[in-house]
Amino acid sequence: MPRARRRRARSAQGRSWGRTVLLIIAATVTVVVVVGSLAAIHTQSSSYRSSTDAGYGDLASRVADASNQTGAQLATLMAEAPTLANQAVPDTARGELQQGLDQAADASSQQATQAAQLVPPYPSGSVSDQFTQALGDRATATSDLRTAIDQLLGMSPLPVAGAPTSIVPSSSAPLIAVPQATAAMSAAGALFEHADDVYRSLMAGIRSQRLPIRLPRSVWVPSPVGTSPLGAVQLGAAASSLASSVPLIPFHRLAITAVGLVPPAVSSGGVGVVGGDCAHVQSSGPGATPTVLPPTATITAEVTVTNCGTVPESGVTVSQELALNDTAGAALPAPAARGSASHAIVSLGSGSSSVVPLAPMVVASGHRYTLTMRVALPVTQVNPAGSTQQFVIQISD
Questions:
Q1: What is the mean pLDDT of the segment spanning 39-55?
Q2: Which H/E stretch holds residue 306?
Q3: pLDDT for 36
Q4: pLDDT class for 381, splitting at 50, 70, 90?
Q5: pLDDT at 163 over 80
Q6: 50-75 burial, b if ≥16 CB within 10 A, otherwise e?
Q7: Are 349 and 312 in contact (CB under 8 A)?
Q8: Phi/psi zone of residue 329: left (φ > 0), alpha (ψ -120 to 50 degrees), beta?
Q9: How confident is the model over 123-152, as pLDDT tens digits?
Q10: Domain over 254-395 is classified CATH 1.20.120.30
């Protein structure tokens, strides 16, 4: 081969190797840059996940602490419920039980909502799903427990301050039998136990994955489960105990605790205008001396009815009757002023009172009347004292 051709071949071969070396160097630099970028991204991502996990744990721990408090209060309530004693209305055994159940149901519902609202951002793994499920199961079980007891004892959730009022009919007999309540309350206890299992699984997962999430221990049904107040066994057994507790049996007691007249009396005779409370009120008779009112064409009785019982009462009929009571031989007044009758319907919570809106009654000056007010009693009310108030009214000339 001629010398010039050999030189050209060697030159081409050298340029080829140079390009190859440059390509290798470029590829190496690219790999180093990519690996470094991935390492940086991984480091930044790990830092973000750790921050997210820790932040979630801080917020969730507060909800778990509140849940622990609710569970402890509910457990104490259920342990003491069969032995609750009646105090003065409205601090009755039924009222205390109902209030405790309502508070637990409301609190656990709020905690379940708070747990669900902690995300996004989401912590690692299934932490948020398990935490939300545990608190959601507790809220469901608490609501189911309240419903079962309310239906067993004929109770109803207490009205919420500021919420629209609703009339809840009272019941003198359980809405469900003891066996039904036993099954429902046992099911609620089983759900409490399941919620604890979910929470324990959550804590075990956090430990095994070494996540930077700090949550408090949270158990509503501690060991031994068989004797725990919120366990399936004890809640099931509580149904018969609640049904047989004398202070929790519905007690009906309606009474007229006050009567005022418009216009006000000039002087009173006999019993006259009455006033009292659940401990002292009695039915009054007309008396020998009338209550004297100033000259007027109408009178209005302002009747206060009080529910001294332990159950709400709805559809209560309160009636008034005005009858002419002149001496024999006296001239009759106009027909419209010879007497009248009317009634009104009210509903009353346990321990509450209401001024009943009764219609004005036509009267005539110089005449005497007997005014009778009555409250219709539930068929199971034993004590009728205070259910009737009656007195004589003299209209001045």
A1: 72
A2: strand 298-307
A3: 44
A4: very high
A5: no
A6: eebbeebbeebeebbebbbebbeebb
A7: yes
A8: left
A9: 999 999 999 999 999 999 999 999 999 999
A10: no
**C-alpha neighbours within 13 Å on the C-beta side of residue 391:** 25
Question: Looking at the predicted structure, is the pLDDT value of residue 168 above 60?
Answer: no
Question: Buried b / exposed e across 183-207, counting CB within 10 Å, b at 16+?
Answer: ebbbbbbbbbbbbbebbeebbebbe
pLDDT digits (tens, 9 = 90+) for 354-375: 999 999 999 999 999 999 999 9
**How many Cα neighbours within 13 Å face the side chain of 189?**
25
Four-CA torsion 71, 76, 81, 87, nearest 10 degrees: -120
Tokens of 60: 């969730």
What lies within 8 Å, CB to CB, of 121 at 6+ separation is 52, 55, 56
pTM above 0.90, yes or no: no
CA–CA separation, 107 and 231 (whole Å): 19
Q: Kindly report the backbone phi and psi dihedral angles of residue 114, in degrees, each rounded to the nearest multiple of 5, phi listed first.
A: -60, -40
pLDDT of 93: 92
Which of 169, 115, 112 has the alpha carbon at shortest distance from 139?
112
**How far apart, in whole angstroms, are the C-alpha atoms of residue 302 and residue 285?**
18
Distance between CA atoms of residues 367 and 228, nearest Å: 71
Bridge-based pairing of strands 313-324 and 339-348 is antiparallel
Provide the residue ranges of all domains of the chain, joining segments of one domain with +.
42-159+166-248, 254-395
**Residue that has been written with the tokens 């409370």 in this structure:** 277
For residue 346, the model assigns a pLDDT of: 95
How many residues comprise the chain?
397
Residue 329 or 183, more confident = 183
Contact 319, 362 (CB under 8 A): no
CB neighbours of residue 174 within 10 Å: 19
Omega of the bond leading into 224 within 30 degrees of 0 (cis): yes
pLDDT of residue 208: 96
DSSP character for 49? Answer: H
